[in-house]
Design a protein that fits this description.
- This protein has about 140 residues and is α+β, with helices and mostly antiparallel strands.
- Helices cover about 20% and strands about 30% of the residues.
- The chain has a 6-stranded antiparallel sheet, covered by helices on one side.
- It is globular.
- The mean pLDDT is about 90.
Length: about 140
């Protein structure tokens, strides 16, 4: 059993597996506890959008600002808490070819995110105070 230096029982923990790195983008899979099927992303923007969608769906952490869009929302917030289809420990066993990160967004304030990111290979945990900082950490790790 791996020891994690963050709250892995949080509902919005995601496991990001980086499988391929090109000159400008990282590609891989994102796992959460609510679907056994990974979300495959081709770049960091797709990853950030999917994480935002997951947090909106869970309504956790609650956003201090409402997202505006000209498009109709695909998935509305559920009345009941969504059911986890697998445990966090099991979900966090997935690994990327090039690297793995566990991300916990603790707050969504001032139109950005704050939280912690753990690089599984090094065991190093870092805090981020904006989405830009999170992207810089991801970029520097790989």
């Amino acid at each position: 059993m791996t020891e994690y230096r963050m709250n892995i029982s949080a509902p919005n923990i995601v496991n990001v597996c980086i499988d391929q790195i090109t000159e400008t983008e990282k590609q891989g899979r994102m796992y959460d506890c609510y679907s056994r099927e990974p979300f495959r992303f081709q770049n960091e923007l797709q990853l950030m959008r999917k994480m935002e969608e997951l947090m909106d769906w869970l309504d956790y952490p609650q956003s201090s600002m409402k997202t505006r869009s000209y498009q109709k929302a695909e998935r509305e917030k559920q009345a009941d808490q969504p059911e986890k289809v697998w445990g966090c420990e099991e979900m966090l066993q997935e690994r990327g070819v090039r690297g793995t990160m566990v991300i916990h967004v603790q707050y969504r304030q001032n139109a950005t995110w704050q939280g912690k990111i753990l690089c599984v290979e090094t065991g190093e945990t870092q805090e981020f105070f904006s989405m830009l900082e999170l992207l810089k950490i991801i970029d520097n790790e790989f």
